[in-house]
Every structure is written in structure tokens, then in C-alpha cells.
Specification:
The structure holds 2 protein chains of 2 kinds.
Chain A: H1 8-16, H2 29-33, E1 41-44, H3 54-62, E2 68-71, E3 74-75, H4 77-84, E4 88-93, E5 95-96, H5 106-113, E6 118-121, H6 124-136, E7 140-143, H7 152-155, E8 158-161, E9 168-173, E10 179-187, E11 193-194, H8 202-208, E12 211-219, H9 222-227, E13 232-234, E14 241-244, H10 262-275, H11 277-289, H12 294-301, H13 303-316
Parallel strand pairs in A: 1-2, 1-10, 2-4, 3-5, 4-6, 10-12, 12-14
Antiparallel strand pairs in A: 7-9, 8-9, 10-11, 11-13
Helix pairs in contact in A: 6-8, 10-11
Chain B: H1 5-14, E1 22-25, H2 29-40, E2 46-49, E3 53-54, H3 70-73, H4 82-91, E4 96-99, E5 103-104, E6 110-111, E7 114-115, E8 124-125, H5 132-138, E9 141-146, H6 171-174, E10 182-187, E11 190-194, E12 201-206, H7 212-217, E13 224-231, H8 237-246
Parallel strand pairs in B: 1-2, 1-4, 4-9, 9-10, 12-13
Antiparallel strand pairs in B: 2-3, 5-6, 7-8, 10-11, 11-12
The chains are: A alpha/beta, B alpha/beta.
Chain lengths: ~325, ~250
């Protein structure tokens, strides 16, 4: 029996027992993802269709993990993939679907309404504070959010009385994931990571998790990190494995580098509307299981599409 | 000038926002309404978007479909982490929370989680809170923009995702929500507020050519009425032109 996800003492002991190396972390995405075990609680960085660790998610699916809990503040297609592939039995999130134009996720509805997957809902801030509490090494954080709502009993938020003023506050438990899956703009080979644009919750997730797996758009020389150390948001000693994966979030976006491929989402959701979860099974065969590596995967989209999405990103940033 | 229900909503929403304020804003019509207010009468309004975006300038024709993408972050002044973005609201820096369509009840509670009475075995699983609960809990004043339909305006929501006045009277503060609350519900039929004591929804103003009877026929609970009930001025050509320039493809305005 594993300790509870909010057991801060056990989480601290796990870190104390772990090597915190400043050494070389560079490996393949296959090798990195092999650190995920069945029944792990995994947290994915980014948000919705932004900076999703798609190459790592794809590899976790290829390695046929199951019994996972996926934690992500806002979930998108990666959550649907994990549901249909039978990889997850529980999701912890604030929101799940693809985006406003595509309505409520039919896959989420099918899997949650039939109780095949448990949907543990928190408010966006409350979930962020769960990662923040874990990143701080404390068992909970007080907050003014989520009180008075029916979300309180869902995930087990409690209340606590402020010892100074007597005011009732929400108490959100820390969430220490077993594994963090993150995608960043650049890192050196030692795992010192920099992110451009919105940082989402990645820095807290990296501090909260026991094992941290990272893919990067670019591996840069050590000197480049040392020239701009203020830009580093995850220090190398937090990171266990690092892989170079350009377009590693695609068809989701990576700030400044490529815009999300909305046309691709359009085709994906149209197929689901026509065929239900069968369409996702077919999609996984084509995009996850068939291509032997991420380069072959990107070939399915083609270089013109990647160039177009890059140009669209440059217009906006 | 004629206009669509979404255009009416965006214009009426924009008029709620005062200058020299901050607004936590969702995508779609609320974002258009805030952008219109910024261009027209509130040049010193700062928009905050939950993906971690402060002070963006929306690029006409490239409207975001989510709260965390480059279209939402165009020319932003700051891109903080998501948790820190919400903490601006918890600290009290956000004057308005500006939220979109929803199932809403007479106390302004909103449901975007589940239909049915058992959370763990829902009849319909909806996307969830996202930041809506936090906006409803933490902003100084929450303004809801929604189409006015009987199926949306229910006596009691199946599930309180985002608390308004909870069960009315002092129940919101008693639950620990000592700040904020829903001040306005702007719909395609009128502008609604809440009785200061009971916190039940009441009609403040009707849009041009809308009758109280129409509003009552499209509402699933008994509405109180302000005395007197006002009438809103229809959208002006100036407002509509500015609004349409923001969404030339009519993604959200049609």
C-alpha cells in the first residue's frame, strides 16, 4: 500500500532517499517514460492544449501502463487518450474537454458517466495550491477559495480555523505525484530547464513530484543556461531524465514556437462525433502505436503543417 | 441597427465595467465585452485571464478559444504562473469576475460540473469548474453573462460548482466566503441583481422592447423586481461597430 498522495512526511523521506544529481540526464523519451509504473499518480505539466508533454504521454501509452491516476489542472485530448487506452482509472482536474468550439468531451462523458474512470474535481486554484503545498513541503495550505460549494466533499477539502482571527478557511491537502511529465522550451544536458511565455504550474509540479521526467524543444550548452540563470525555473537536481523532442507538444501548442493545430482538433472531434470512442481507438493506432518514434509521428502531420503552425505562433508572440 | 443576442450581451456586459478597474475574464462573449469596454469607455481597465495572462491586447480576427493560448496572451504585460494569477484575486486585486453562460439559480449559484443528484454517478458529466469557482469565490464583484433560457434559470442548481449567494441571507459569509458575491446577471432579456437581504435574484432593468412577462416565462423560478424596473438603452451603432471589428469572422457574435 502506497502512502496517501498528501502524506508530506513520506514524500519528504522519498526525496531524502533519492539521488539529487547535477550530472547528465539526457536519454531517450522511451527510457525516460519507462520510469512510470502501473498505478502511479502522474502529473502532466502545461495547461489544456498548451505545452502538454505529448511525447511522454504517447510513450506512457506505448508502454501500456494501466491503473494510473492522471493529475492535470485542465485536461484535453491527452486525458481522452489515456481513458480510451485504459491507462487511467482516475483523473484529478478542474476541467476537461478540448476547447470552447467543440463542446463537452464525449469521451469524458462516456467514461465518467459509466464509472469506468473516476473524476475528482477541484477548482483551478485549489488544485494549483495542492501542488504549491507539496512544492513547499507542507501538508496543506489555507485558502479562501472553493468554500460553500459542492466541490468541497468531492476531493476531501476540509476547513481550518485561523488561530489568529478565528476565521474559517479552506484547507487543501498537498498533492505529491509519483511522477511529473513536463515539456519545456530549453534545458542543458543536466536538466536545468527554461520555459518561455506562461509557466503554468510546471515549477510547482517539478518540486512536488518524486520523479521528474522532462522533454525539451532544444538542448542548449551549459554556458547558455549560466548566461541567463534568472530564466531557469527548474534546477537540474530536480530532474531524473531528459529527452530532446522538438515539437514535443504537437498538435498542442508551445508558446512562441507553434500554435495548437485547431484543424487537427476539428478532424479528431468530428470523428468522435461520428463514431464515439472507436474513433479514439483508431486515432491511437495511427498516431500512438504505429509510429515507432516521435519523428515518424510528426511525419503524419507533415513538414508543411509544422511550418504553418510555427508561422502562426510567430505572428502572435 | 439590428444586432444578434450575442452582440446585445457583449454590449450590455461591457457597460458594466468601470474605468480604472481590473477584470478576471473568461473567453468568448465575456472577453469581447471586456475588450469593448477597454476600447470605448474604460481605457485603464486591465484584463486578467486564468491561463496566466495579464493585460493582453486581443488581435482582431485571432480570438482565443481557451484561456491559455498565444491568442489570449497577445502583447500581454505579464505572464505569471496560473496559481499566482488566481492569488491576485485572493489578495483582492480583482474588481470584477466576468463569467459566461451557465446553469444558474435564484441565488446566483452556478453549475458546470454534473447534471443529476449523485456526483459520482452523474446523468451528464460537464467539463467542470476550471477557474469559475475561484472567480466566483475571490473577485470583489461577479458579473455573469448568459443567454436567458428557462432550462438555464433553475430554482436550484443540481450541483454548486461556483457559489453565488449559496442559500441566501448570510449563508455565503457563513461558509467562509467573506468577500465578493454575484452582483449582476446580464442576459439577453435584461439586467438582474440580488435583494440585499434575502439575496434572491431580482429584475433591475429590461432590454428595449422586452416585457416582464417574457422574462418570467423564460425563468424557472420566481423573480423579485426592483422599484422601479429600468429600461436599458439599445446598443449604439458605435458600440456595435467596435465590437464587430474585434470579431470580424463572427466566431462568437453570430
Amino acid at each position: 500500500m502506497k502512502p496517501a498522495a498528501h502524506d508530506f512526511v513520506a514524500a519528504r523521506r522519498r526525496l531524502e532517499a533519492k539521488a539529487k544529481s547535477a550530472g547528465d540526464k539526457l536519454t531517450t523519451v522511451e527510457d525516460a517514460a519507462a520510469r512510470v509504473q502501473d498505478a502511479d499518480v502522474i502529473a502532466a505539466g502545461g495547461c489544456l492544449f498548451s505545452r502538454t508533454p505529448m511525447a511522454l504521454v504517447r510513450e506512457v501509452l506505448r508502454q501500456r501502463r494501466h491503473g494510473l491516476t492522471l493529475v492535470r489542472n485542465l485536461m484535453c485530448t491527452e486525458g481522452e487518450f489515456m481513458m480510451v487506452a485504459g491507462a487511467v482509472e482516475r483523473v484529478i482536474t478542474a476541467w476537461m474537454s478540448i476547447g470552447l468550439p467543440w463542446g463537452v468531451s464525449k469521451i469524458m462523458r462516456e467514461y465518467v458517466e459509466s464509472a469506468k474512470v473516476t473524476f475528482e474535481e477541484w477548482s483551478h486554484l485549489a488544485l494549483g495550491l495542492r501542488f504549491r503545498a507539496a512544492a513547499m513541503g507542507v501538508p496543506f495550505l489555507p485558502t479562501l477559495t472553493m468554500l460553500g460549494s459542492d466541490l468541497v466533499p468531492v476531493g476531501g477539502m476540509k476547513t481550518v480555523q485561523d488561530p489568529f482571527t478565528g476565521q474559517v478557511l479552506g484547507a487543501v491537502p498537498a498533492l505529491f505525484p509519483d511522477v511529473a511529465l513536463l515539456h519545456v522550451h530549453r534545458a542543458d544536458r543536466f536538466g536545468n530547464c527554461q520555459i518561455d511565455g506562461y509557466p503554468h504550474m510546471d515549477a510547482d509540479i517539478a518540486r512536488a513530484a518524486t520523479t521528474v521526467l522532462v522533454t525539451a524543444e532544444e538542448i542548449v550548452p551549459e554556458e547558455e543556461i549560466r548566461r541567463h540563470p534568472d530564466r531557469t525555473i527548474i534546477p537540474g537536481f530536480l530532474v531524473d531524465a531528459l529527452a530532446l523532442v522538438p515539437f514535443g507538444s504537437f498538435p498542442h501548442e508551445c508558446y512562441g514556437l507553434y500554435e495548437a493545430d485547431y484543424d487537427h482538433f476539428e478532424g479528431y472531434t468530428a470523428a468522435i462525433n461520428a463514431q464515439g470512442s472507436r474513433a479514439v481507438t483508431d486515432y491511437l493506432d495511427r498516431y500512438v502505436y504505429a509510429p515507432a518514434n516521435f519523428v515518424d509521428y510528426l511525419d503524419l502531420f507533415g513538414p508543411d503543417r509544422l511550418r504553418r503552425q510555427h508561422a502562426l505562433a510567430r505572428e502572435l508572440t | 441597427m439590428t444586432f444578434t443576442p450575442s452582440e446585445l450581451l457583449a454590449v450590455m456586459g461591457s457597460r458594466q465595467l468601470k474605468n480604472d478597474t481590473t477584470v478576471f475574464v473568461g473567453v468568448g462573449v465575456p472577453l469581447l465585452a471586456a475588450a469593448l469596454a477597454h476600447q470605448r469607455h474604460a481605457p485603464q481597465l486591465t484584463m486578467v485571464i486564468e491561463g496566466g495572462i495579464i493585460g493582453p491586447r486581443i488581435k482582431p480576427g485571432r480570438l482565443p478559444i481557451s484561456t491559455n493560448e498565444m491568442r489570449a496572451a497577445h502583447q500581454a504585460q505579464m505572464l505569471p504562473a496560473i496559481t499566482d494569477t488566481f492569488l491576485f484575486a485572493q489578495r483582492g486585486f480583482l474588481d470584477y469576475g466576468f463569467m459566461g453562460g451557465a446553469q444558474i439559480d435564484q441565488y446566483g449559484n452556478i453549475n458546470t460540473s454534473v447534471l443529476g443528484t449523485d456526483y459520482w454517478h452523474p446523468k451528464v458529466r460537464l467539463p467542470g469548474s476550471g477557474g469559475a469557482n475561484d472567480i466566483a469565490s475571490l473577485c470583489k464583484e461577479v458579473i455573469i453573462l448568459t443567454a436567458h433560457e428557462k432550462r438555464r434559470f433553475v430554482p436550484r442548481v443540481d450541483f454548486v460548482t461556483s457559489p453565488g449567494w449559496v442559500d441566501g441571507n448570510g449563508s455565503r459569509a457563513k461558509a467562509g466566503l467573506i468577500f465578493g458575491g454575484v452582483s449582476r446577471v446580464v442576459t439577453t432579456l435584461g439586467v438582474f441583481g440580488f435583494d440585499p437581504e434575502t439575496r434572491r435574484m431580482r429584475v433591475e432593468a429590461l432590454h428595449h422592447e422586452v416585457t416582464l412577462g417574457t422574462v418570467r416565462a423564460n425563468t424557472g423560478f420566481e423573480l423579485l423586481t426592483a422599484d422601479p424596473v429600468g429600461i436599458t438603452a439599445p446598443p449604439t451603432p458605435d458600440e456595435l461597430q467596435m465590437l464587430r471589428a474585434l470579431d470580424p469572422d463572427r466566431r462568437f457574435l453570430s
